Amino acid sequence: MGMRSEDYHNLLDNSEVYRREPYMKAFSIVDRYLECFSKYYHLGLEVGEKIKDFIPSRIVYLGIGGSAIAGDFINIITEEVPVIVHRDYMVFRSNPDDLIIAVSYSGDTAEIFPTLLKNLELNRRMIMITSDGRLRKLAEKMNFPSIILEPGIPPRYAFPHTLGALLGLIQSLGIKIETLSGSIVETGKIKENFVPETPTAKNLAKKSASRIVGMLPIVYGYGKAVPIAYRLKCQLNENSKIFSHFCEVPEAFHNDVEILNEKTVLLAPRLSNEPNEIDEVYRALSSFLRENYIELKVPAGNFLSEILSLLILVDYISLYAAILRNVDPLALYVIPKLKDNNRNYQEILKNVDERLGKI
Amino acid sequence: MGMRSEDYHNLLDNSEVYRREPYMKAFSIVDRYLECFSKYYHLGLEVGEKIKDFIPSRIVYLGIGGSAIAGDFINIITEEVPVIVHRDYMVFRSNPDDLIIAVSYSGDTAEIFPTLLKNLELNRRMIMITSDGRLRKLAEKMNFPSIILEPGIPPRYAFPHTLGALLGLIQSLGIKIETLSGSIVETGKIKENFVPETPTAKNLAKKSASRIVGMLPIVYGYGKAVPIAYRLKCQLNENSKIFSHFCEVPEAFHNDVEILNEKTVLLAPRLSNEPNEIDEVYRALSSFLRENYIELKVPAGNFLSEILSLLILVDYISLYAAILRNVDPLALYVIPKLKDNNRNYQEILKNVDERLGKI
């Protein structure tokens, strides 16, 4: 009954697989990762010009799920301005010198609207990133600077678009980040190691996927690698439909590790500038777990290339795991059911509609 | 082969079980929960008197694992002073008007020392909470105000001691918290519902334990219930040796819920003052998961009783689950092995010894 690792490799190295839907579409979106990132980075630069005269003391980032993680990355890419990522229905109390960035791919994410409507009353500076829905309507009616994302893809696949847009935005506000041009070229080369055409023997993404199927994958992250680890956990949940667990290091060393066993496999996204203390934590884990420890590390010339390469690697792992588990990486089953079942969700969106009617 | 739910109930309602070690010892510690909490609360009040003239602008809390969670509770119990819980080797940059609270039951937790030694140089105000080891030696040599915890119990079981000590400390610093006297009496009554003498039919702790054994338990928490949810996840890991996963609501609704299935069981510690939006999130989860949704809610007269009762409930669940899984709730296997295997751990402690030699 069970497939062996060799069978996994044969399956992932068979080019036929990638000509079948839904895999063909999923891979074609991830293939365009850097292209989309660059496109929206330039759009972000343009839109940021419109509020260039305003230097925010904080960025209040409204988003949840896949949209929220992009906000976490701004926090690790620049330390010049603090970014508060607000993942809640409760109204966040903003200050007059805050910049509000509201992000929802669908434009209809209920959680962001209570804070958004409150800040509308307060006349705060705002920027919207969305493809459609009420958020887009609001941006248009109020003439807010906004970045409109390409339609027709599952929201979590619009992550490079959102991240690019955000980096462009903050750069045009005069907030320093590493230069992008070299990073894109370098990341493009690294990405080739993870594409379907690269055989499993040389492909860290395929190898990793083969080792997590049928297991309990756990992702540990440290410091600036934390949002990468969290993104991997979410992509395994949503794309691969696999139970996956996430924890931060070194905290995990004091409780979570107690349940590591022969069924768990640990994925560790690593950055090259981690302190020696953290190297030792992972070395201890590796010597304890042996083949159940998978280190995700990419050689890259700068921090931005490293992050982008790891993010692309993460997406490919989730797609290969989806193939091996024979599931649809584009579809979701539980999340939409629960949203429909949430009366409050409908209630909040009705309030937004009323408000939109009055503008 | 498999046990039925009826067998679980019979086992948990058999008083013989609780006369056997290691269960007898584990239950006897948890039985003293409120007694220890009160004792160390009064000790905390006394020790706090020694630095009463100093009103800190922030509390920098150094701890990790079970010790760190107690710090998280200070943040939810009072909003008067921000508490930064630092769970890392990296040195935290403190200000002159910060109060450093260093917590380690063993006194030899490597992670806290780099920041501690740095702050020693800076002559910052400090308080130590420990039972032994290098932290105790340091407190004695430097004559720092300190709270010495009872020896001989596994560190995670010293949680009520630490939490009590912390509440006493911050109250004597003039930071407002809810009055304790009534809460202790009320919590004592609620606790009776969870003890071994209360049969499963009326015992939420036993019922919950029976439903998670053989399953993948997931804990979701919102707002002030987050550290309770996280404590439950850790206690299931360490006491019950069961894989357990934790996530925050409403974020979990946007990715984590996708993997809820017939093997997962959701535990939801709830507080009575949660907003309507969050009630709806849990209502949707409950109607979707049906018998795989377990709500942990206790009727209590005030916020502090509610938190303490839930924390005690959490501990009992983990002990009953340990019985049903036939594991030792006092022992740990992986954590000590990994610590021994961490060369950096030894390196840091050697540095502390050198420093202690010079004082």
Could you name the key traits of this structure?
2 domains, 359 residues, 5-stranded parallel sheet, 4-stranded parallel sheet, 14 helices, alpha/beta, Rossmann fold, homodimer
CATH class of the largest domain in chain A: Alpha Beta
Quote the CATH topology of the largest domain in chain A.
Rossmann fold
Largest sheet: number of strands, sense, barrel closure of chain A: 5 strands, parallel
Overall spatial form of chain A: globular
Strand order of the largest sheet of chain A: 2-1-3-4-5
Count up the domains of chain A. 2
Describe this protein's structure:
By secondary structure, chain A is α/β, with parallel strands linked by helices. Chain A has two domains: 174 residues, Rossmann fold (3-Layer(aba) Sandwich); 156 residues, Rossmann fold (3-Layer(aba) Sandwich). Chain A is 48% helix and 13% strand. In chain A, strands 2-1-3-4-5 form a five-stranded parallel beta sheet, with helices on both faces. A four-stranded parallel beta sheet of chain A has the order 7-6-8-9, sandwiched between helices. In chain A, strand 8, helix 11 and strand 9 form a beta-alpha-beta unit. Chains A and B meet through helix 10, helix 11, helix 13 and helix 14 of A and helix 10, helix 11, helix 13 and helix 14 of B.
